[in-house]
Amino acid sequence: MIGKLLYIDPGTGSMLFSIIIGIAGVLIFAGHALLIRLKFFFLGGRSKDTDGSRMPVCVFSEGKRYWNIFKPVLDEFEKRGKDIYYLTASPDDPALKADYKYVHAEFIGEGNKAISKMNLIKADLVLSTTPSLDVFQWKRSKGVSCYVHIPHMPNDITTYKMFGLDFYDAVLVSGNYQKEQIRRIEKIRSIPGKEIVLTGIPYLDTMKERLDRLPHEDHSGRDKTILLAPSWGNNGILTRYGASFIESLIKTSYKVIIRPHPQSFTSEKELIDKLMAQFPESDKLKWNRDPDNFNVLNEADILISDFSGVIFDFALVFNKPVIYTEPSNDWSQYDCCWDTEELWTYKILPKIGRKLTSENFGNIGALIDDCISGSGASELAKGRDLAREQTWCNMGKGAEKTADYLIRKHGEIASKNAAVSAETKGSKGTKGSKGTEDQPPRRKSKKSLFA
To answer: Which fold has domain 55-201+396-448?
Structure first.
C-alpha cells in the first residue's frame, strides 16, 4: 500500500524533475547576482548611477564565434571615433587583441559568470545576437535603457526558441518578411510592438567585399569541387547518410571537400573519427577544419548542406548553387510554430537549390551536373537574385546603417536621461564629466559598470 502511495509515474516524475532543476537554476543565478552585488559593495562599488559610470553603447558576445557578426559594426564605430564597449564571454576573443582606440573590449568570464554580470550591467544600450533575453538565465538589467538584437543569420527571424525576441526593445532585420514575422507574433501574443529597423547584414557585406577584392582567376580548366558542409546532430547529413553518401560523392567526377561542423568533433567524435579513418585524404578528397570558412567556400563550385545558415552565405555571397536536405525538425518549441505563414526558408530553398533525398543521392553526380551547368543552372541563378532582393537590404551598407541607428538611439536615450536628471536635480546639475549626445563620457571605473 505504501509503495503504491509513493509511486510516481514517469511523466509526472519527469515534470517534477524539470521543476526542481528550474528552481535550482533560479536560485543559482540569483546567488550569482547577489555575490556580485556584495563584491562590488565591499570593494567600494556603488549601487546608484554616477556620471560617467554608464556605458553609452555596449555589445554582449557569447563568444568568439560571433566575432564576424560584430566586427563590421565595431569597425564602423572606430572609423567614426565613437565609443563602444565590447563584453565577451571568450578569453581568446579576437576583439581583445584588436588595435582599437574607441572600441573597449573586455573579457567578463565564461558561461554563467558572464550572464550574471550582464544581469547587472549599466549601459544606455546593449546590442547582442543572443536570444531569450528575460526568458532563461539572462535577465534585463535595471541599469540598461534599451536592448537591441542583431541576428546572426540572413533568413527567418522566428527560428529561435519560443519567446526568443519578445523582451528585446528593438530588432535589426534585413528583409521585410522578417519584420512581418515579428509583427504577426506580437499580435498573436498580444505583446507591445518593438522597434524594427531594416539595416542589412553587416557580416555578409564584409564577406562580399572580401570576395570582390580577390583578383579574377580563370577556373575553366580546373576540376570542379563539391563542398560537403553539414551541421551536427540527428538531422546532419553525416548522421543521416554517413559513409554511403561520401562514397557516392567520391564516385563522381568532382573533387570533394568535407567540412564537418566544429561541434561534430566534440559531440559526434566517434562518428567523425570513424569516417576520417574510412576516407583518408587523397587527391580526390580533403577534410577541412579551417577556423575561417571563406577560402573553402570560395573554392567550391557547389555546396551540399542541411538546414544550415551556411547555405545562404554560399548562395548569396558566392552566387553558387546548393543542394540541401529538408530537416525533420519539430518546431513546436520555436517561435515559428506560432506563425500563420510558412517559413521563408522553405519557400526560397527550392528556388536556390535542389533537395537531397535518400532516393536521389545514389545519382548525386547527375543532380550536381544539372545545378552547375545543366538546365537548372539559370533557374537557380534567378532564384539567388530573388533571395538577395528579399533578405539582403542595404547591401554593402549594413554596418553603416547599424551604426547610424545605434548612435541615433543612444542620442535619444541620453537626451531623455538628461532631461529627467535636470528635472530631478534642478538647475545645479551634477558633478563630474557631463559628456554630450554625440560623444558620451568615457567609463571611469570597472567597478561602476554594474547596477
So the answer is: Rossmann fold (3.40.50)
Considering only 162-176, 318-332, 395-409, 414-428, which range has the smallest mean pLDDT?
A: 414-428
Residue 27 burial (CB count, 10 A): 10
Query: What span, in angstroms and rounded, lies between the C-alpha atoms of 362 and 367?
Result: 10
Which among 145, 281, 297, 268 has a CA at the least distance from the CA of 208? 297
**Structure confidence at residue 309 (pLDDT):** 81
Contact 64, 93 (CB under 8 A): yes
Alpha-helical runs (H) found in 279-397:
294-299, 310-312, 318, 344-352, 364-372, 376-391
Per domain, the residue ranges of the chain are: 55-201+396-448, 206-391
Backbone angles phi, psi at 284, to 5 degrees: -90, -30
Q: Which CATH superfamily is domain 206-391 in?
A: Glycogen Phosphorylase B; (3.40.50.2000)
**What percent of the chain has a predicted confidence (pLDDT) above 90?**
66
Q: Which residue has the cell 519539430?
A: 330
pLDDT of residue 377: 94
> Per the structure block, which three cell numbers stand in for 164?
526568443
Write down how long the chain is: 451
Could you tell me which residues are beta bridge partners of residue 44? none
Contact between 234 and 263 (Cβ < 8 Å): no
171 close to 182: Cβ distance less than 8 angstroms: yes
**Cβ atoms of 334 and 160 closer than 8 Å:** yes
Q: Check for a shared fold between 55-201+396-448 and 206-391.
A: yes
User: What grid cell was written down for 387?
Assistant: 533571395
The secondary structure of residue 84, as a DSSP letter, is E
* Sheet with strand 353-355: strands edge to edge: 285-287, 255-258, 225-228, 302-305, 322-324, 353-355
Among the ranges 8-22, 81-95, 331-345, which has the highest mean pLDDT value?
81-95
Note the helical H segments in 83-233: 111-118, 176-189, 202-213
